[in-house]
Amino acid sequence: MPGPSNTLLIEGSFEELADELSHYLDEVKKKEGDANSAIQSEIAPLLEQNQKDETLKKLVTGSAVLNSAPEK
Q1: Four-point Cα dihedral 39, 45, 14, 31, nearest 10
Q2: Are 16 and 47 in contact (CB under 8 A)?
Q3: Distance separating alpha carbons of residues 30 and 22, to the nearest angstrom
Q4: Whether the Cβ atoms of residue 34 and residue 26 lie closer than 8 Å to each other
Q5: Pick from 34, 37, 36: which is nearest to 59 by CA?
Q6: Does residue 37 contact residue 63 with C-beta atoms inside 8 Å?
Q7: What is the rounded distance in angstroms from the CA atom of residue 28 to the CA atom of residue 10?
Q8: Alpha-carbon gap, residue 70 to 37, rounded angstroms
Q9: Dihedral (Cα; 51, 65, 40, 50), 10-degree rounding
Q10: Which long-range contacts (CB under 8 A, 24 or more apart) does 43-51 make?
Q11: What is the pLDDT of residues 25-71, one digit of tens each?
């Protein structure tokens, strides 16, 4: 008998998912007192130019705040 599966399926385009994650990261940073967080505005032009690698770099760099964020 196979063990339990922890598979999570997320639907949406890369652009939609990156935008949603950047918005969440900005909100968490603002709650922690970083009012200058602007990941969402930083990645918008990158998404328009289809620079997915640069977009991911910005998201990964900003994701350190998730260590202190409540579980969603």
Answers
A1: 20
A2: no
A3: 12
A4: no
A5: 37
A6: no
A7: 21
A8: 18
A9: 10
A10: 43/18, 43/19, 44/19, 47/15, 47/18, 47/19
A11: 999 888 888 778 899 999 999 999 999 999 999 999 999 888 887 77
Cβ 18 vs Cβ 30: under 8 Å: no
Q: Is the pTM of this model over 0.85?
A: no
Q: How many residues would you count in the chain?
A: 72
Q: Helices in the chain by DSSP H: which ranges? A: 14-31, 39-48, 52-62
Residue 13 near residue 37 (C-beta atoms within 8 A): no
Q: Scanning the structure block, which residue is given the tokens 């760099």? A: 61
User: Which tokens hold the place of 33?
Assistant: 């007192």
